[in-house]
């Protein structure tokens, strides 16, 4: 059974995702005009095919994600200004389409986003205030409450490290890697409203960095990989999200020249 709508000449479906409750399927396609990639939803039986974005330029919607509770869909596109990518949300039926990212400085873009597990907010990475300075922001799904949650960048550089940020499973914190205090990439956490912003990784030698991290399932700890004790020797450490507890090394002693290369959590 085909659930996508009839395609324009040359059109294609590029990606799709089920709603959390399986009631609809979202997909992006140049369904109406070739190379104008919009976001659509459809019921699993193919009925109710609906356009939920409003692309006006060549290109369109490339990233999209359902809210965990299925109430809305967030997507990244240049809907208002050609080649200026922002975050929008819409109801699954196309209603209530709204931009949720804040006004961008000239040259600014949104680069990635992630729903809070409880669907209350969306975190996104953007050079919203200063061109080429990547910072972390959150907004409610209706576009209200837009706030920067990463701290002021006081060191030269580009702020956050790529898209390396993640919500805690209980939605109470966002963790991210940034060199906002120095040339060293450190691990920080923030409250979704920006009210708390501690560095949670331990002191590191000059030239050392945090490379990646994961949340524990209960949201009580972060595990991260860093050359925190010996430069160029990556080990595993654990810390509390509020920065209040002592950091501990959890990987075992390494042989000369040894490193921890990857890790996973249950």
Can you walk me through this structure?
The protein starts with 12 loop residues before the first strand and ends in a 17-residue tail after the last strand. It has a domain at 144-266: Beta Barrel (Lipocalin), CATH 2.40.128. Strands 1, 2, 3, 4 and 5 form a 5-stranded mixed sheet that branches. Strands 6-7-8-9 form a 4-stranded antiparallel sheet, with no helix packed on it. It has 266 residues and is an all-beta fold. The protein has strands at 13-18, 25-33, 36-42, 50-51, 59-60, 63-66, 73-77, 86-90, 98-99, 110-115, 122-126, 135-139, 147-148, 160-167, 174-178, 186-190, 210-215, 222-226, 235-239, 248-249. The protein contains no helices and 20 strands. Strand 18 and strand 19 (235-239) form a beta hairpin.
